[in-house]
C-alpha cells in the first residue's frame, strides 16, 4: 500500500478526530521495539514485514479484522512502559496530522493482565489491572498534550461480547473523569444486542446518571435497529459509524432533527466490509447532502495502514467533498465533542480563527459565550440541537 506514503494532503488545517482506537493506532516500530525488549518472538522482524501482517489489505470479515489485533496485542498488554508509550506516541502522530483535539478510545481490560476475566491475548496472570491501565494511558496522553500542544481526551470501551466488564468500565469513567476520560463506548460484534446482555444497559444507565458522555458503535455492519437501541436504550449522544441508519428513513430523519453526531470512518468502512468498496456510493455522501452532523475519522490506522489525510483525500477525490465542507464538519465535530461547554467554546473559536472565519463577529469570545450559553442575544432562527446546545453553524456558515 505504498500509495499511503505519497498521499495527498487535501485539508492542511486544524482538525478534530472523535473516533480512533488507541490499540488500533500503535506504531509498528514500537511493537517491534517492545517485543525485542520483552523477549517476545514475532513472526516478522522488520517494519515492512510486520506491517504486512498487521494490515487488512482487502475488504475483510469481522473475524479477519479482529484477528489482526491478536498479532500484536500480547506485546503491548501487561507492560506499563509500553502502554504509556503508545499513548504518548499516539498524541505525537495526531499532532503531525494537524489534529488539535482528539478523543481516543480503548478497552482497559484488553491491556490488563489481572482483575480481568478471562485474561486476554493468552497472557499469564500479572499485576497490571484495568484501573492502572487507565492511569498509564492518562499519563501518556497528558505528557503528549504538553509536548505536542494538542488536546487529547479518552473514551473507555465496553466490549459487546464481555458484558461482565461493563460495570468496571463505567466505574473507571467516573473515577477518572477529572483526568481526561470523557465518555463510555460500546464496541465489538453488533449482533450481540443489549436485551440479551443487560450488563451494557446497566452500565450506560449509570453513565447517564453520573453525567458520563455516551457513544456506541452501531449501524456499522449491524442493521438500523442497533442504532435505534443505542439511542433509545443506551441513550447514546453520538453514534460510531451509523451507516445503516439509512435503511430506516423514519429514524434517520428523527436523528437528523436531533442533530445526532455520526462518527464516520471512510477507509475503515471499506476495509471492514461495512460499506460498498466503491467510495462513490458511500453513505456519508447522503449525510453531507442532508447536512447531517458527522466527523471524519481513522478508526484503526495501524490495521488500515492509513492516516487521517487519507480519509480526507478519499472524501475529496471520490465523494465530492470541498474545503468548505471540511470546515463545516470539523466545527460540527468540535461542537459534538465531549468537552465541557467552556472548553468546547474555546475549541470552536480556535477553528473559526484557523479557518479565517472570524470576520469581527465570532472573534469576540463574549459573542460566542452568549451564543453557546443561550443568553438571549442571538436568538433569531436558533434551535436547540441535541446534547450540545445551540449550533453555532446555523449563524455563521451557510452551505
Ligand atoms: Zn471503532
UniProtKB/TrEMBL annotation:
Pfam families: A_deaminase. Signal peptide: none annotated. Keywords: Cell junction, Cell membrane, Cytoplasm, Cytoplasmic vesicle, Hydrolase, Lysosome, Membrane, Metal-binding, Nucleotide metabolism, Zinc. Its EC number is 3.5.4.4. It is a peripheral membrane protein. It is found in: Cell junction; Cell membrane; Cytoplasmic vesicle lumen; Lysosome. One of its GO terms (biological process) is hypoxanthine salvage. GO terms for molecular function: adenosine deaminase activity; metal ion binding. Its main location: other. It catalyses: adenosine + H2O + H(+) = inosine + NH4(+); 2'-deoxyadenosine + H2O + H(+) = 2'-deoxyinosine + NH4(+). Its cofactor is Zn(2+). Gene3D superfamilies: Metal-dependent hydrolases. One of its GO terms (cellular component) is cytoplasmic vesicle lumen. Residues 14-353 form the Adenosine deaminase domain. CDD domains: ADA. Belongs to the metallo-dependent hydrolases superfamily. Adenosine and AMP deaminases family. This is Adenosine deaminase. It comes from Oncorhynchus kisutch.
Amino acid at each position: 500500500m505504498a500509495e499511503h506514503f505519497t498521499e495527498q494532503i487535501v485539508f492542511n488545517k486544524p482538525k478534530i478526530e472523535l473516533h480512533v482506537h488507541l490499540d488500533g493506532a500503535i506504531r509498528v516500530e514500537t511493537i517491534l521495539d517492545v517485543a525485542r525488549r520483552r523477549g517476545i518472538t514475532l513472526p516478522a522482524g522488520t517494519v515492512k514485514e510486520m506491517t504486512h501482517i498487521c494490515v487488512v489489505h482487502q475488504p475483510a470479515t469481522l473475524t479477519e479484522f479482529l484477528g489482526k489485533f491478536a498479532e500484536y496485542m500480547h506485546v503491548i498488554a501487561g507492560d506499563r512502559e509500553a502502554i504509556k508509550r503508545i499513548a504518548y506516541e499516539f498524541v505525537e502522530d495526531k499532532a503531525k496530522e494537524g489534529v488539535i483535539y482528539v478523543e481516543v478510545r480503548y478497552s482497559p481490560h484488553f491491556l490488563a493482565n489481572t482483575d480481568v476475566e478471562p485474561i486476554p491475548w493468552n497472557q499469564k496472570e500479572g499485576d497490571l489491572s484495568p484501573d492502572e491501565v487507565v492511569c498509564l494511558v492518562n499519563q501518556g496522553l497528558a505528557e503528549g498534550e504538553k509536548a505536542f500542544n494538542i488536546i487529547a481526551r479518552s473514551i473507555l470501551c465496553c466490549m459487546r461480547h464481555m458484558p461482565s466488564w461493563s460495570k468496571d468500565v463505567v466505574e473507571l469513567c467516573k473515577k477518572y473523569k477529572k483526568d481526561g476520560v470523557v465518555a463510555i463506548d460500546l464496541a465489538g460484534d453488533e449482533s450481540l444486542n443489549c436485551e440479551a446482555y443487560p450488563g451494557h444497559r446497566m452500565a450506560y444507565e449509570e453513565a447517564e446518571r453520573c453525567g458520563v458522555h455516551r457513544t456506541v458503535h452501531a449501524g456499522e455492519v449491524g442493521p438500523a435497529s442497533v442504532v435505534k437501541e443505542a439511542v433509545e436504550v443506551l441513550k447514546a449522544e453520538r453514534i460510531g459509524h451509523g451507516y445503516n441508519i439509512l435503511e430506516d428513513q423514519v429514524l434517520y430523519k428523527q436523528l437528523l432533527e436531533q442533530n445526532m453526531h455520526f462518527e464516520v470512518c471512510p477507509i475503515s468502512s471499506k476495509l471492514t466490509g461495512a460499506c460498498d468498496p466503491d467510495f462513490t456510493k458511500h453513505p456519508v455522501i447522503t449525510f453531507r447532502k442532508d447536512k447531517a452532523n458527522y466527523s471524519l475519522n481513522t478508526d484503526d490506522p495501524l490495521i488500515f495502514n492509513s492516516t487521517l489525510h487519507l480519509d480526507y483525500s478519499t472524501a475529496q477525490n471520490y465523494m465530492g467533498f470541498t474545503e468548505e465542507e471540511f470546515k463545516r464538519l470539523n466545527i460540527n465535530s468540535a461542537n459534538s465533542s465531549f468537552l465541557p461547554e467552556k472548553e468546547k467554546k474555546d475549541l470552536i473559536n480556535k477553528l473559526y480563527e484557523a479557518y479565517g472565519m472570524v470576520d469581527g463577529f465570532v472573534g469576540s469570545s463574549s459573542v460566542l459565550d452568549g451564543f453557546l450559553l443561550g443568553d438571549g442575544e442571538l436568538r433569531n432562527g436558533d434551535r436547540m440541537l441535541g446534547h450540545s446546545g445551540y449550533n453555532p453553524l446555523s449563524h455563521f456558515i451557510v452551505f
